[in-house]
Design a protein that fits this description.
- By secondary structure, this protein is of the alpha/beta class.
- It folds into 2 domains: 3-94 and 199-214, Rossmann fold, CATH 3.40.50; 97-196, 3-Layer(aba) Sandwich (Rossmann fold).
- It has 9 helices and 8 strands.
- The chain has helices at residues 13-23, 36-44, 49-64, 78-87, 97-106, 119-133, 154-165, 183-189, 197-214; strands at residues 3-7, 30-33, 69-72, 92-93, 110-114, 140-144, 171-174, 194-196.
- The strands form 2 sheets. The chain has a 4-stranded parallel beta sheet with strand order 2-1-3-4, with helices on both faces.
- Helix 1 links the parallel strand 1 and strand 2.
- It is globular and about 50 Å long.
- The protein starts with a strand and ends with a helix.
Length: 216
């Protein structure tokens, strides 16, 4: 099984590895890292032709490398990832589609927390499209956790934000792979579900690949 994980930051890779160890230990993912994507996406915009072209190249590389599936871990690039998804026959997952399925299934008011502001519009657009495809009007709020990204207090700031939000929502989701380290303590601190993107993604990827192999 050749599963490629594409990241725009090294910080997303350990949470992905941990999710596979917990949720699918027989699979050892293959990492592709382009750490310049986050910087260039912030400067040029995540839908700039140069950025879109680089994602197309990544998709072609994965195809040549005989990928069985690709999971992107960079949440700010939904449109670029969507192009890769449409261009290839192997399954391609965005970082958040599995988590969004959980939120839409939960119904009622839910919230997605982010620490990287550029992710918000991409996530909102992706969620809106995913909800429309299911005929659902989402009740999802996006919450920015200030000063957490890259901070030594990263997990603490996220957990405290979750605790403040929990009384008002049915479920919470940590909207970036890089936030997953805070998930266990956030779950312990909150009386509602707190989902993270790596865990939900690995669970969905396993199901999708089983279905995909059964139809080939």
């Amino acid at each position: 099984m050749r599963l490629f994980l594409v990241s725009a930051g090294q910080v997303s890779m350990p949470p992905a590895d941990e999710a596979f160890r917990s949720g699918w230990p027989d699979v050892k993912p293959i990492h592709l890292l382009d750490a310049s994507l986050s910087t260039d996406g912030a400067v040029l915009g995540t839908t700039h032709p140069e950025i879109l072209g680089r994602f197309e190249q990544i998709g072609r590389y994965c195809e040549r490398a005989r990928a069985d599936a690709v999971l992107f871990t960079c949440s700010a690039f939904a449109e670029a990832i969507g192009r890769v998804k449409r261009a290839h026959r192997f399954p391609v997952l965005t970082p958040n589609e599995a988590m969004f399925d959980r939120l839409l299934d939960a119904g009622g008011p839910t919230a997605v927390l982010v620490t990287f502001p550029a992710s918000v519009e991409a996530l909102r657009s992706e969620l809106t499209a995913q909800a429309a495809a299911r005929g659902i009007a989402p009740q999802v709020t996006f919450e920015f956790v200030p000063q957490a990204y890259g901070s030594p207090d990263h997990d603490r700031l996220i957990i405290e934000h979750c605790e403040r939000l929990a009384p008002a929502y049915r479920a919470l989701a940590l909207g970036q792979f890089s936030m997953a380290s805070a998930a266990p303590a956030a779950r312990a601190a909150c009386p509602i579900p707190v989902w993270d993107t790596p865990g939900t993604s690995v669970a969905k990827l396993r199901t999708v690949l089983q279905d995909h192999s059964g139809t080939r």
